[in-house]
C-alpha cells in the first residue's frame, strides 16, 4: 500500500509539470503583456519598463518559467497585482468560507440524492419514478443563474426570510444566518443531476445476475436493495463524490458572487476581472494539487469498497 | 447445401442499424418531439444569424420597461425616465465591471480605457433617440431598460447561445475524437503522451480552466467557442479512447486486419461508424453543458462581446430589473433556455436508447 | 402400487414475452410435466427452446415487465400453486425448498461480499440460526462441496476463486437449507470440460446424499444422459419427448430427439457427412453415410510449417514496470495441403493466441512460421499483404466478427477491393453473390445486414468473406463452438464440403474433442501454452499417450449408458 502511494505521488510530478506548463503558456505567452493592463493610460516607457522589471517580464521566457516553478515548489506566489497582498495569505483567508458553504452543500445534497435515487430505482417504472425523472430532467434544464436570482429575490428580498447577502466573522452567525439560503439554492441546483446519475447507477446494478441470485435465495426486495445493490452501486457513487471534492476548494463560484461570501470562488471571479494573474495561477495550482491528491484518495477508497480492485 | 435455419423474420428487410435507430427514434414520441423542438430552434437561430429575423434587436422601439401586452394593465408602473437618467444608467451598467479594478489600480474615470467606446456608444444612441420614433407602450414580451424589444433580443440571444454551444461542442468533439481515437487505437508512447495531456486538463476544474482561459483572451463569440472547446474535449477523449481500445480487439476489426485493411481504414471505416451513436449522444450533452457555461460566462462578463446579446447577457440584466419588479425579460429567457435544454437532454436520452445497437 | 404425488407439477404452462410495442412472442407453449421427489429430470433443448424460461417461471424469477404467464397455467409444488403464491410465500420457498444454480457463477455471486458471507446469509434467512452456528454450517457446506482450505475460502471474494470453485460455492449456497428441489440452469456450460465433469459428479453425489429432486437444464443431451432419470426434450417452446433416459437414448420416438442425438459428432464414428435435423423430419428414412478415413498421407505436401512459436503477453504496471506472461511456449507442427490440423485445449491453453500469432494479429516473440518455405514472421508489412490473403481466419463469435454497420455486400466486397480482385463494383458484387450461394445463402442476402441473420448464417457469411480472397489455409478459431448442435452440424458439413471442393487446408481450433476428431487428420493437444501431444487423429483418440490427453478424453460426456454413478434399480 505504502509503495503504491509513493509511486502514485511520484507519478503526479509530470502532471503537475504539465499544469505549470499550461498555465505558463496561457499567462506568459498567450496572455500577452499584462503590464499594459496594469499601467492603464499612463503608457510612459519608463512606467512600463518599471512594471515589467518588477514583474520579471523582461527576463527571457525559460528564466520566467524557472521562477514560476520555484514559486510552485515553495508555494509562494508573490503578491497579488491588484491588492499587493501576499497571495498565500489572501487565499488562506478565502478557503474557510468556501469549505463551509460547499462542504455542507455536498453533505446535504449527497444524502438527499442517494435517498431519493434509491427510492425511485427501487420503484423503477412506477409513476413516482417517471415523475421524479421528468422533474429532474426539467429542473436540470433551468440555468443555475435563474435559481439563484429568483431565490435571492423571492426568498430574501421579497419574502424576507433570509438575509439578502453578507458574511460575518463568526462561524456560528454564518451558519445560522448567512449560510442557509446559499446552501438551499446550492442543494437545489445540484440535486437533479445527482438524482439522475445515482438512479442510473442503481438501475444498472439491479440488472446484474447477482440480484437474481439474491432473489433466488429468498431475500426480500428491500434487503436486496439496501444490502446487495447499495454496496455495489456505492462504487460509482463514491468515485463521483471523491472526484467532486476538489471543487470544494473552489467553492460555489456563483453563490459566493451573489451572496457576497468572501470565498475562493468569488476571489477567482474578481481575479479574472482584474487580470490578477498571480492569484489565478496560485488557485489553479492549488486546485490541481488537490485534485491529484483526491484522485489518489479515490483509488484507495475504491480499494476499500471494491475487493476486486488491485492497486499496482 | 441445406439452409441453416428459417429465413430471418425481420418485418422490414434490408435495415441498416442506422435506419432502425432512426425508426426507433421516430416511434419514441418524447424523443421525436424533442428532436422537432431542437430543429425548430436551429431554424430560428439560422434565420436570426442570416439576418432574416431579429436583425433590429438593438432598436429602441418602446418605452423603457414597457410591459408585455398581456400584462399591460397589471404590470408595475414604469418610471418615465428622461434621457439623462438613461445615460446615467447606461454608464453605471457599462462601467460596473470596471469599477472594482479601476478602484484598485488607481484609475480615474477619465483614464478608463472604455471611456472612448462609451462616448461613441452614447453618440450613437443619441442619434437613435433623435430619430424620434413613436415608442410603443407595450410589446408582446415587453421591453428592457432601454426600450428594446425583449422578443427580438430573445431571438438574437438564442441564435448566439446556440451558435456558441453547437460550434463549441463540434470543435470539442472533433479534438476529443481524433485524439481519443489515436490514443486508444495505437496505445504505447502516443497514448502515454495524450493521457498526460488529459490528466493535466482534468486536474483543473472546468469552470476554473474556462475562467483562466477567459482571463487571457478577449471577449466575443469566436473566443468563447475556442475557450470552451479547449476546456471540454476531455470527456469525449476519454470516451473515444475507451471505445477504440475496446473495438480494436473486437473480432470484426481483427477480421478487417486479416483481410488486409490498413490502420486508417480500420479506425475510420470500421470502428468510427460503430461508435458514431455515442458521439451523437455526447454531442447533445456537450451542447447542453456549453450553453449553460456560456450563460454563466456571459453573466460574469467574460462571455460574448458588449455589442452582442446572448441568454447569459440577458440574464445579467435580470437581478437589477427584478428589484424594480420587471420580471419579463428573465422569465422569457428562462423559459426559452429551459425548453431547449430540456429538449436536448430528452433527445440525448432517446438517442442513447434508440441507437444502442445491443437493444433489439 | 399407488405412486406418490409428484414434488412439482407443471400444468399447461404458457409464457409469452411482449416488446414495448405489444408484439407478443410465445416462449413456452402450454407444457406440462412432473418432477417426482428425489429424481433427476433433465430439460434439454437448443437456444430459444424455452427451457430456461420454464425454470425461471417455476421460481417466478422472470422479469415483471413485458412477460406474461397465461392465467390457466399452474405450477404446483407441495399442493400450492406457485403462480398465485404471495410474495412472502415465494420468498420462504426460494432458497429454502427450491434452490437454484445458474450458468455464470462469476456474475451470479455478489462481487463485493465474501463467499462465506453469502452462504451465511442464506442460512440465517431460512433456518433462523445465529451467526455463529451459520458460520459453522457454512464451513461444513464448503467442505462438502469440495472446496480446498474452506476456512480461508470463506473469507475470499468471488473473483479470487476459479470458475469451478465459484460454481461449488453456488452449489453450497443452494443446498444450504436442504432444498427438496434444486434447479440447475446450464450449471456447467461456462466451465472447461474437465471441471464440468467434476461439478456433475458433485451434483450427482449431493443429489443422492440429500435425496433431493434436481431439474437439470442443458443444451447437451450427452451430458444429461450421464445422470438424469428422465429427459424432457424441448423445441420452440413445446415438449417433443418426455421419457426415461434409457428410452431416449436407446429408442427415441421423436424425430427431433433422434436428430439431436445423431447430429453431434461422436468419438466412435466419423461419417462423411453429419446428419442434420431435416434428414429426420421427412418421411424418408435416414441412411448413415459411409465413414471417412483421416490422417496425413505420405504423399501430402507441406503448406505450413511452424517451428518453436512462442507468444508473450506484456502488461504494463504503471509507467515503468513491465510484466510478461508466456501464452504460447515453443509450439511446432506441420500442416499438409488439403488436410486439417486440430488444436485442442481448455481455456487459457493458448490455442487461440497461437491462431492469431500465425497470421500476425498477435505479435509472436520467437519461432518461425514457414508458409511454403517463406517465414511469415520475418516479412515486411508490404510483403505480408499477399500472404495475408492466402491464410484467413474465421472467429468464434459470429455476432462479433461481422461489422454490424456494413451490409453483407460491403462485407464481402471489401476484401476483394483491398486485394484487387474483380475489376469493378459490379463484378465484385457478382462474385460476392456467387460465394454467398456457395456457402448456402441466397444471393438476395447481399442487401441485408448482419443482425438480420441467425448465428449459423452469420458464420456462413464470415466463411464467404474469407473465400472471396481464395485463401489456401483457413484458421477456424472455435468457429462452431457458439452454435447450437443442429446448426453446428450444418457448418461442419459446409467446411468439409469446401475442403473437398477447393482443397483448403484447415487449422481447426476447438475445446470440443468430438468436433475436432470429426474434422481433423492430425490433432495437437495444448496445455498452458505447451504442446503436450501431437499425433494422427485416430491414433491420438485410440491410444492417448499424455496423461492430460487421457484426462480430457475421459471428461467428454458420452451420454447413456456411460453414467457417472450407479443408478438405483
From TrEMBL, chain A:
The chain crosses the membrane at residues 12-31, 99-122, 134-155, 175-192, 233-259, 279-302. Keywords: Cell membrane, Membrane, Transmembrane, Transmembrane helix, Transport. It is a multi-pass membrane protein. Its main location: membrane. Gene3D superfamilies: MetI-like. It is found in: Cell membrane. Residues 95-298 form the ABC transmembrane type-1 domain. InterPro entries: BPD_transp_1_N, MetI-like, MetI-like_sf. Coiled coil: none annotated. PANTHER family: DIPEPTIDE TRANSPORT SYSTEM PERMEASE PROTEIN DPPB-RELATED. Belongs to the binding-protein-dependent transport system permease family. This is ABC transporter permease. It comes from Vogesella margarita.
UniProtKB/TrEMBL annotation, chain B:
It is a multi-pass membrane protein. The chain crosses the membrane at residues 30-49, 164-186, 295-314, 326-348. It comes from the Bacteria. Residues 158-348 form the ABC transmembrane type-1 domain. It is found in: Cell membrane. SUPFAM superfamilies: MetI-like (SSF161098). Keywords: Cell membrane, Membrane, Transmembrane, Transmembrane helix, Transport. Its main location: membrane. PANTHER family: D,D-DIPEPTIDE TRANSPORT SYSTEM PERMEASE PROTEIN DDPC-RELATED (PTHR43386:SF1), OLIGOPEPTIDE TRANSPORT SYSTEM PERMEASE PROTEIN APPC (PTHR43386). Belongs to the binding-protein-dependent transport system permease family. This is ABC transporter permease. It comes from Vogesella margarita.
Automatic annotation (TrEMBL), chain C:
Gene3D superfamilies: P-loop containing nucleotide triphosphate hydrolases. Residues 10-261, 306-553 form the ABC transporter domain. The keyword ATP-binding applies. CDD domains: ABC_NikE_OppD_transporters. InterPro entries: AAA+_ATPase, ABC_transp_ATP-bind, ABC_transporter-like_ATP-bd, ABC_transporter-like_CS, Oligopep_ABC_C, P-loop_NTPase. One of its GO terms (molecular function) is ATP binding. The keyword Acyltransferase does not apply. Keywords: ATP-binding, Cell membrane, Membrane, Nucleotide-binding, Transport. NCBIfam families: PRK10419.1 (NF007739), PRK11308.1 (NF008453). Belongs to the ABC transporter superfamily. This is Dipeptide ABC transporter ATP-binding protein. It comes from Vogesella margarita.
Amino acid at each position: 500500500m505504502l509503495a503504491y502511494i509513493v509511486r502514485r505521488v511520484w507519478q503526479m510530478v509530470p502532471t503537475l509539470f504539465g499544469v505549470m506548463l499550461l498555465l505558463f503558456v496561457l499567462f506568459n505567452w498567450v496572455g500577452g503583456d499584462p503590464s499594459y493592463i496594469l499601467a492603464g493610460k499612463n503608457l510612459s516607457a519608463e512606467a512600463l519598463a518599471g512594471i515589467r522589471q518588477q514583474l520579471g517580464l523582461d527576463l527571457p521566457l525559460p528564466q520566467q518559467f524557472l521562477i514560476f516553478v520555484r514559486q510552485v515548489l515553495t508555494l509562494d506566489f508573490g503578491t497579488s497585482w491588484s491588492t499587493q497582498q501576499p497571495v498565500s495569505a489572501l487565499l488562506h483567508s478565502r478557503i474557510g468560507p468556501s469549505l463551509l458553504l460547499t462542504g455542507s452543500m455536498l453533505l446535504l445534497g449527497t444524502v438527499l440524492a442517494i435517498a431519493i435515487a434509491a427510492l425511485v430505482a427501487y420503484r423503477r417504472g412506477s409513476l413516482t419514478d417517471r415523475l421524479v425523472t421528468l422533474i429532474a430532467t426539467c429542473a436540470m434544464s433551468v440555468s443555475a443563474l435563474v435559481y439563484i436570482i429568483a431565490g435571492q429575490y423571492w426568498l430574501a428580498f421579497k419574502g424576507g426570510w433570509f438575509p439578502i447577502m453578507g458574511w460575518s466573522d463568526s462561524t456560528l452567525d454564518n451558519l445560522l444566518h448567512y449560510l442557509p439560503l446559499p446552501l438551499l439554492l446550492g442543494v437545489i441546483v445540484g440535486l437533479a443531476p445527482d438524482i439522475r446519475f445515482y438512479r442510473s447507477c442503481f438501475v444498472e446494478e439491479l440488472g446484474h445476475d447477482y440480484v437474481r441470485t439474491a432473489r433466488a435465495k429468498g431475500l426480500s426486495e428491500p434487503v436486496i436493495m439496501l444490502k446487495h445493490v447499495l454496496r455495489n452501486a456505492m462504487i460509482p457513487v463514491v468515485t463521483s463524490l471523491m472526484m467532486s471534492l476538489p471543487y470544494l476548494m473552489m467553492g460555489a463560484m456563483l453563490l459566493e458572487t451573489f451572496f457576497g461570501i468572501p470565498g475562493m470562488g468569488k476571489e477567482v471571479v474578481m481575479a479574472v476581472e482584474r487580470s490578477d494573474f498571480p492569484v489565478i495561477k496560485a488557485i489553479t495550482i492549488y486546485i490541481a494539487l488537490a485534485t491529484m491528491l483526491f484522485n489518489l484518495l479515490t483509488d484507495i477508497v475504491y480499494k476499500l469498497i471494491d475487493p476486486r480492485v488491485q492497486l499496482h | 447445401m441445406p439452409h441453416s435455419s428459417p429465413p430471418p423474420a425481420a418485418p422490414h428487410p434490408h435495415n441498416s442499424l442506422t435506419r432502425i435507430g432512426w425508426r426507433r427514434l421516430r416511434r419514441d414520441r418524447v424523443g421525436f418531439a424533442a428532436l422537432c423542438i431542437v430543429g425548430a430552434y436551429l431554424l430560428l437561430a439560422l434565420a436570426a444569424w442570416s439576418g432574416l429575423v431579429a436583425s433590429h434587436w438593438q432598436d429602441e422601439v418602446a418605452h423603457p420597461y414597457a410591459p408585455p401586452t398581456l400584462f399591460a394593465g397589471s404590470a408595475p408602473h414604469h418610471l418615465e425616465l428622461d434621457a439623462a437618467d438613461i445615460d446615467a444608467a447606461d454608464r453605471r451598467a457599462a462601467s460596473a465591471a470596471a469599477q472594482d479594478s479601476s478602484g484598485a489600480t488607481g484609475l480615474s474615470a477619465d483614464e478608463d480605457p472604455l471611456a472612448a467606446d462609451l462616448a461613441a456608444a452614447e453618440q450613437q444612441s443619441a442619434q437613435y433617440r433623435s430619430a424620434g420614433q413613436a415608442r410603443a407602450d407595450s410589446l408582446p414580451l415587453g421591453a428592457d431598460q432601454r426600450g428594446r424589444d425583449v422578443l427580438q433580443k430573445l431571438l438574437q440571444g438564442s441564435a448566439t447561445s446556440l451558435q456558441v454551444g453547437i460550434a463549441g461542442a463540434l470543435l470539442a468533439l472533433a479534438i476529443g475524437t481524433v485524439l481519443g481515437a489515436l490514443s486508444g487505437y495505437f496505445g504505447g508512447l502516443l497514448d502515454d503522451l495524450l493521457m498526460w495531456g488529459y490528466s493535466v486538463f482534468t486536474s483543473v476544474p472546468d469552470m476554473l480552466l474556462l475562467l483562466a482561459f477567459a482571463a487571457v483572451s478577449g471577449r466575443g463569440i469566436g473566443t468563447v467557442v475556442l475557450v470552451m472547446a479547449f476546456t471540454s474535449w476531455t470527456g469525449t477523449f476519454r470516451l473515444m479512447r475507451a471505445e477504440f481500445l475496446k473495438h480494436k480487439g473486437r473480432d470484426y476489426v481483427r477480421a478487417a486486419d486479416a483481410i488486409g485493411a490498413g490502420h486508417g481504414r480500420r479506425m475510420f471505416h470500421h470502428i468510427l461508424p460503430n461508435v458514431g451513436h455515442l458521439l451523437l449522444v455526447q454531442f447533445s450533452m456537450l451542447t447542453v453543458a456549453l450553453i449553460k457555461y456560456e450563460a454563466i460566462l456571459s453573466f460574469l462578463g467574460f462571455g460574448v462581446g458588449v455589442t452582442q446579446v446572448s441568454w447569459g447577457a440577458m440574464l445579467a440584466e435580470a437581478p437589477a430589473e427584478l428589484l424594480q419588479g420587471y420580471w419579463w425579460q428573465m422569465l422569457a429567457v428562462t423559459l426559452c433556455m429551459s425548453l431547449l435544454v430540456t429538449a436536448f437532454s430528452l433527445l440525448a436520452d432517446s438517442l442513447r436508447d434508440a441507437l444502442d445497437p445491443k437493444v433489439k | 402400487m399407488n405412486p406418490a404425488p409428484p414434488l412439482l407439477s407443471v400444468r399447461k404452462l404458457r409464457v409469452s414475452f411482449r416488446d414495448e410495442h405489444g408484439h407478443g412472442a410465445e416462449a413456452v407453449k402450454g407444457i406440462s410435466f412432473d418432477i417426482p421427489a428425489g429424481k433427476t429430470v433433465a430439460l434439454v433443448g437448443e437456444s430459444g427452446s424455452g427451457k430456461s424460461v420454464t425454470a425461471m417461471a417455476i421460481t417466478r424469477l422472470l422479469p415483471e415487465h413485458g412477460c406474461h404467464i397465461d392465467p390457466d397455467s399452474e405450477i404446483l409444488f407441495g399442493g400450492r400453486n406457485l403462480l398465485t403464491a404471495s410474495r412472502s410465500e415465494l420468498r420462504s420457498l426460494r432458497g429454502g425448498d427450491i434452490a437454484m444454480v445458474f450458468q455464470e457463477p462469476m456474475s451470479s455471486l455478489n462481487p463485493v461480499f465474501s463467499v462465506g458471507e453469502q452462504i451465511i446469509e442464506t442460512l440465517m434467512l431460512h433456518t433462523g440460526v445465529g451467526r455463529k452456528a451459520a458460520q459453522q454450517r457454512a464451513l461444513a457446506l464448503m467442505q462438502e462441496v469440495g472446496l480446498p482450505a474452506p476456512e480461508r475460502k470463506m473469507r475470499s471474494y468471488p473473483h479470487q476463486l476459479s470458475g469451478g470453485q465459484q460454481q461449488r460455492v453456488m452449489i453450497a449456497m443452494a443446498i444450504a437449507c436442504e432444498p427438496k428441489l434444486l434447479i440447475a440452469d446450464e450449471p456447467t456450460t461456462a466451465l472447461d470440460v474437465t471441471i464440468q465433469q467434476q461439478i456433475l459428479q458433485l451434483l450427482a453425489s449431493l443429489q443422492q446424499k440429500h435425496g433431493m429432486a434436481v431439474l437439470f437444464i442443458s443444451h447437451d443431451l450427452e451430458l444429461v444422459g450421464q445422470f438424469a432419470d428422465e429427459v424432457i426434450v424441448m423445441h420452440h417452446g413445446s415438449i417433443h419427448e418426455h421419457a426415461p433416459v434409457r428410452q431416449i437414448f436407446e429408442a427415441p420416438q421423436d424425430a427431433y430427439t433422434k436428430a439431436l442425438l445423431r447430429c453431434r459428432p461422436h468419438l466412435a464414428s466419423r461419417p462423411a457427412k453429419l446428419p442434420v435435423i431435416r434428414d429426420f423430419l421427412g418421411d424418408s428414412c435416414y441412411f448413415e453415410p459411409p465413414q471417412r478415413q483421416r490422417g496425413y498421407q505420405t504423399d501430402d505436401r507441406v503448406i505450413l510449417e511452424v517451428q518453436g512459436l512462442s507468444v508473450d503477453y506484456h502488461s504494463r504496471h504503471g509507467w515503468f514496470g513491465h510484466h510478461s506472461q508466456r501464452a504460447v511456449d515453443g509450439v511446432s507442427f506441420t500442416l499438409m495441403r488439403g488436410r486439417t490440423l486440430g488444436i485442442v485445449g481448455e481455456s487459457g491453453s493458448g490455442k487461440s493466441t497461437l491462431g492469431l500469432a500465425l497470421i500476425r494479429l498477435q505479435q509472436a516473440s520467437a519461432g518461425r512460421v514457414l508458409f511454403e518455405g517463406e517465414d511469415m514472421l520475418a516479412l515486411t508489412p508490404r510483403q505480408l499483404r499477399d500472404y495475408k490473403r492466402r491464410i484467413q481466419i474465421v472467429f468464434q463469435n459470429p455476432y462479433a466478427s461481422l461489422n454490424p454497420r456494413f451490409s453483407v455486400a460491403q462485407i464481402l466486397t471489401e476484401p476483394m477491393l483491398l486485394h484487387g480482385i474483380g475489376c469493378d463494383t459490379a463484378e465484385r458484387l457478382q462474385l460476392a453473390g456467387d460465394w454467398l450461394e456457395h456457402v448456402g445463402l441466397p444471393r438476395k442476402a447481399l442487401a441485408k445486414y448482419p443482425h438480420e441473420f441467425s448465428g449459423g448464417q452469420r458464420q456462413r457469411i464470415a466463411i464467404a468473406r474469407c473465400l472471396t480472397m481464395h485463401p489456401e489455409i483457413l484458421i477456424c478459431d472455435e468457429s462452431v463452438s457458439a452454435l447450437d448442435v443442429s446448426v453446428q452440424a450444418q457448418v461442419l458439413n459446409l467446411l468439409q464440403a469446401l475442403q473437398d471442393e477447393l482443397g483448403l487446408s484447415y487449422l481447426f481450433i476447438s475445446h470440443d474433442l468430438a468436433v475436432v476428431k470429426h474434422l481433423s487428420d492430425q490433432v495437437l493437444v495444448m496445455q498452458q501454452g505447451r504442446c503436450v501431444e501431437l499425433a494422427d487423429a485416430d491414433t491420438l483418440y485410440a491410444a492417448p499417450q499424455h496423461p492430460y490427453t487421457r484426462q480430457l478424453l475421459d471428461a467428454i460426456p458420452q451420454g447413456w449408458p456411460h453414467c457417472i454413478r450407479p443408478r438405483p434399480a
